[in-house]
Automatic annotation (TrEMBL):
Keywords: Cell outer membrane, Membrane, Receptor, Signal, TonB box, Transmembrane, Transmembrane beta strand, Transport. It comes from Antarcticibacterium arcticum. The lineage of its organism: Bacteria, Pseudomonadati, Bacteroidota, Flavobacteriia, Flavobacteriales. The keyword S-adenosyl-L-methionine does not apply. The keyword ATP-binding does not apply. Belongs to the TonB-dependent receptor family. This is TonB-dependent receptor. It is a multi-pass membrane protein. It is found in: Cell outer membrane.
Length: 1003
């Protein structure tokens, strides 16, 4: 009995120890953003015991010390944790990057692994928290072969996006933008030639992803408008689960990325007295004598004792500010998903008098009516208010203030801007006694109905609407340049509407588990209309009455209406064999009212193929190679970016002998047809070490034929030009992308993206011969818009004369490299291109514990920039304009070696258009940098906050360049809409260097 009792007692003791070792383990499971994950499976390894996380991501399970908990969830990498002595184990699951990424393509989506095209995909994480007022600028440096440049530092300034070079001369060079399936209005509606970015009304914080369709195979599904590439914008949508409230708020300040050094008052006096002496002799003291020109500039102040030393640049370039606030609510269930957001942005530019204020709201709803029937509605509205300033080529624009003399005070004693003794009109007067406002109200709507006819067959219909209303009101009071008319005012109103209807079937099936087929067939109709009203008047009884209604005389008024449409049919088939042999073909048949009756419709076919070599038996089991895919594509795209009636013979209303009459204004060309671009792309996608190293290499040739060109014709015809299809040009280049996950640990991650691209542009056919506009030329065998100017040869050390290379042709075809001081003896030659030959982007993303850091460098090489204002501001004192400080290094004595000719006032000595003012514009720029800290969940959950992150962001922090002007990217905004004149700067404002502090909150 005793032995039995001792045995039972021992057994009870051992059981007690075992039971004591089993304990309750609990915790919270979140994703990479710190948000709770619902329904995560938690299994004790090698047992059947397990549980799931609840609605708040919490879980609880009984486990023994030493047992392994396995956390798994669809779409995320599996995590294992060994149970120790702790009672709480919190886990963060990261997305499983070995899964197929789904990207948006035209009229559908596709697995990135099976894509046979060249598509650059940018997620919201890559563009969030970059404090820029427009969506395009947040993409800079993120995609190979894509050049994005804001024209200048004005907040509303136009943005140029060039995808794989320039594919047109006179037609549009901008890509097609499509948001949630709706092609966007992308027309500049500015009342002046200084453009307003048409997409300034979009809130970047509402964007989920952006796909850039670069090759013809991907863009050909949009046919007639795919030549310049297609940018697909997908806005955010809700996700099933807990309703999430997100707040992103930031505020910051900005200043110009660069300022130039100008002469101060003492240096100005020295240089211009010398220049006058060189021109008129030392005995002529018209500048310095009492009542002379310096006295006029000084306006009663003592310039001899340097009483006034005005830095006009500091009045033009000021400290700016930026605020950006977005609040969104999203969520849903298995029936309905929703996303609602509201945004506010205010950007005060670094250029005086220029600012922007934008209010936006968006609502996206998706609802499953039944298992087969689904509907959705996307709506966005925004109001943008812009305080505008003059074009680069107007003295009312701030940057031209640098031409004023430092001897002139900026303001009079009564506080009114000094316009009495300045060389040119004082721009401050416009701010004091004028106003120029633009208001843009934009509505974007897109709805769809989708019905699953069969398990493999669905039908979808989409109806989209884009309304862009823009009004501009300008007033110049009685003290401004309009003083002679006692004030001037005008008002301009533009209403643009676009309707888009798409109907298409999608058939998707798998045969014998080895053959996948996806077919899309449909049609599209699009109609665009535009109405414009303009009125102007002069003579105002008071400067407080600033609308045209108060004008004593209406000096001009006009009203126009126009419309055009597209009718298209399209089809695409994608076929996958054994999950490794990939084929795709597409065809679009486009008709447009813009083209001649003989060629109204055009075919745009495309085909591509891919081979996933890594799926072959001889590589499938490789422990090193994760992916090796060879792909190739060919296709045709078109360009319809011309006037609505370019093919028609037009008449316009005219007055003749005080009678109304009709007069011909345009010659007809019924044979006018689509400009077409054929593109071939060969690419290789690769991945190593479970895709820790991945990337792609591409080579493309892109040839445009039947270029749409406003061709000059003899004046004896009664007309100056006619739109015809003439000429061809070719773009070719390499693209290289490398993605690496350098470090991946629980506490530290480091990912890198590097992209590099080359561009070789050549005009390959131009039957009509050279086209010269200003400083640029289009010539067969050369880069489009090459610089065509006289070559500067420096300064004659004997006498200070400016020299030029003759460059006349010798009998053997060579150029005469002798120099001459006679500008008329020198011939113009091609001396550079406005387009870069090499572009690169380098992005790093790092996380350490709760800290995160990301930054992007961007660089361009091979382009040149011509300073058209150089003849005034760096012209060795020919004019009264203040000079850049480098002009002090002028020639003064025989034997001086310098590049600045002798200063001669009012005499030409090297100020002609020449390569003296042409510079290489190579640069590397730290485009953006963000440093953030996320508070631990254990802290934020006390306040019912899922995630709280504070961050600092800088934009355009550093620029490395040898370019001596304001900025290697800023260009002239007053080119009159010319597509030929490029690479010119003229008092163009630099971009802003911006610093912001922000806060992300998710509830």
């Amino acid at each position: 009995m005793k032995i039995k009792n001792f045995f039972l007692l021992g057994l009870f003791f051992i059981s007690s120890i075992l039971i004591a070792q089993e304990r309750q383990v609990s915790g919270t499971i979140t994703d990479s953003d710190g948000l709770p994950l619902i329904g995560v499976n938690i299994i004790i390894e090698n047992t059947s015991r397990g549980t799931q996380s609840d609605f708040d991501g919490n879980y609880s399970i009984m486990a023994n010390q030493g047992e392994v908990l396995v956390y798994s969830f669809v779409g995320f990498s599996t995590v294992r944790r060994t149970v120790g002595t702790e009672a709480v184990i919190n886990v963060q699951l990261l997305p499983d990057e070995t899964l197929d990424e789904v990207i948006v393509v035209g009229y559908g989506t596709q697995s990135k692994r099976k894509v046979t095209d060249n598509i650059a995909s940018i997620s919201s994480e890559q563009i969030n928290n970059i404090p820029v007022s427009n969506m395009q600028s947040s993409l800079v440096g993120k995609a190979a072969g894509v050049q994005i440049t804001q024209i200048n530092g004005k907040v509303e300034g136009g943005v140029k996006m060039r995808i794989r070079g320039i594919a047109s001369i006179s037609s549009s060079q901008e890509p097609l933008y499509v948001i949630d399936g709706m092609p966007l209005i992308n027309d500049d509606e500015s009342t002046t030639v200084a453009p307003i970015n048409p997409l300034i009304s979009l809130n970047p914080n509402d964007i989920e992803s952006i796909e850039i369709l670069k090759d013809a195979s991907s863009a050909a599904i949009y046919g007639a408008r795919g030549t310049n590439g297609v940018v697909l914008i997908t806005t955010k949508s809700g996700r099933a689960g807990k309703t999430k409230v997100s707040v992103n708020t930031s505020t910051g300040w900005s200043r110009a990325t660069n300022k130039l050094e100008w002469l101060n008052a003492e240096e100005y006096i020295e240089l211009f007295v010398e220049a006058s002496t060189n021109s008129y002799g030392a005995e002529d003291t018209w500048l310095t004598e009492e009542g002379g020109y310096f006295d006029f500039m000084a306006n009663g102040t003592d310039w001899r004792n340097l009483e006034v030393d005005t830095d006009w640049q500091d009045y033009a370039l000021v400290d700016g500010a930026v605020q950006d606030h977005t609040v969104s609510i999203s969520g849903g269930n298995d029936k309905t998903l929703f996303f609602i957001s509201g945004g506010y942005n205010r950007t005060e530019a670094i250029v005086r008098g220029n600012d922007l204020e934008r209010y936006s709201i968006r609502t996206n709803i998706d609802h499953n009516v039944s298992d087969k029937f689904k509907v959705g509605f996307n709506a966005g509205a925004s109001k943008t208010q812009i305080s505008r300033i003059g074009t680069d080529n107007s003295f009312s624009t701030p940057l031209q203030a640098v031409a004023q003399s430092p001897l002139s005070p900026a303001f009079l004693d009564n506080g009114i801007p000094n316009n009495d003794s300045t060389i040119y009109y004082n721009f401050l007067m416009q701010e004091y006694n004028g106003d120029w406002d633009a208001d843009i109200f934009r509505i974007l709507l897109n709805s769809y109905l989708q019905y699953q006819i069969l398990p493999s067959l669905s039908f979808r219909t989409e109806l989209g609407y884009d309304n862009n209303n823009q009004t501009e009101e300008y007033f110049a009071g009685s003290l401004t340049q309009s003083a002679s008319t006692n004030g001037y005012a005008d008002a301009n109103a533009v209403q643009s509407d676009k309707y888009n209807i798409s109907n298409y079937f999608n058939y998707n099936t798998t045969f014998n588990q080895d053959f996948d087929l996806d077919v899309v067939v449909g049609m599209n109709f699009e109609e665009s209309s535009r109405k414009n009203q303009f009125v102007a008047g002069t003579g105002f009884p008071s400067d407080n009455l600033q609308t045209v209604a108060s004008a004593s005389e209406i000096t001009s008024g006009t009203s126009t209406r126009t419309m055009y449409n597209f009718l298209s049919y399209f089809g695409r088939a994608t076929f996958s064999l054994y999950d490794k042999y990939l084929f795709k073909g597409s065809l679009r048949y486009d008709g447009s009212s813009r083209f001649g009756a003989d060629n109204r419709y055009g075919f745009f076919p495309a085909a591509s193929a891919g081979w996933i070599i890594s799926e072959e038996d001889f590589l499938k089991d490789s422990q090193t190679l994760s992916l090796l895919k060879l792909r190739g594509s060919w296709g045709e795209t078109g360009n319809a970016g011309i006037g609505n009636f370019a093919s028609l013979g037009l008449f316009g209303g005219r007055a003749y002998n005080q009678r109304s009459a009709l007069a011909p204004v345009q010659l007809a060309n019924p044979g006018l047809k689509w400009e077409k671009t054929r593109q071939v792309d060969i690419g290789l996608d690769f991945g190593f070490l479970n895709n820790r190293i991945s990337g792609e290499v591409d080579y493309y040739i892109k040839k445009t034929n039947d270029l749409l060109l406003n061709q000059p014709i003899p004046g004896t015809s009664g007309f100056t030009s006619i739109t015809r299809n003439v000429g061809s040009l070719t773009n070719r280049g390499f693209e290289f992308v490398l993605n690496t996950r350098n470090i991946m640990t629980e506490d530290f991650t480091w990912n890198t993206n590097f992209n590099l691209s080359t561009l070789d542009n050549e005009v390959t056919g131009l039957p009509g011969g050279d086209i010269v506009q200003g400083l640029n030329i289009v010539r067969e065998g050369e880069t489009i818009s090459s610089f065509y100017i006289v070559e500067y040869a420096g300064v004659d050390p004997a006498n200070g004369n400016a020299l030029f290379y003759r460059n006349t042709l010798n009998s053997d075809g060579s150029r005469d490299r002798s120099t001459t001081a006679n500008y008329g003896e020198a011939e113009r030659v091609i001396l550079g291109s406005p387009y870069p030959e090499l572009m690169a982007g380098f992005t790093n993303n790092l996380t350490f514990m709760n800290f995160d850091l990301s930054f992007t460098f961007q660089g361009e090489w091979g382009a040149s920039l011509y300073n058209s204002g150089g003849k005034f501001q760096s012209g060795n004192a020919r004019y009264e304009d203040n000079q850049t400080r480098d002009q002090l290094n002028r020639w003064q004595n025989p034997g001086d070696i310098t590049n600045v000719p002798q200063a001669r006032m009012y005499q030409t000595n090297g100020q002609q258009d020449s390569s003296r003012y042409l510079e290489e514009s190579d640069f590397i720029r730290l485009r953006n940098l963000t440093f953030g800290y996320t508070l631990p969940l254990s802290v934020t959950e006390r306040f019912k906050v899922d995630r709280l992150r504070v961050y600092f962001t800088g934009v355009n922090l550093l620029t490395f360049t040898d370019y001596s002007g304001y900025d290697p990217e800023s260009t002239y905004d007053d080119l009159g809409g010319s597509n030929i004149q490029r690479g010119i700067t003229f008092y163009s404002a630099p971009p802003a260097k911006t610093f912001t502090i922000g806060l992300n909150i998710e509830l």
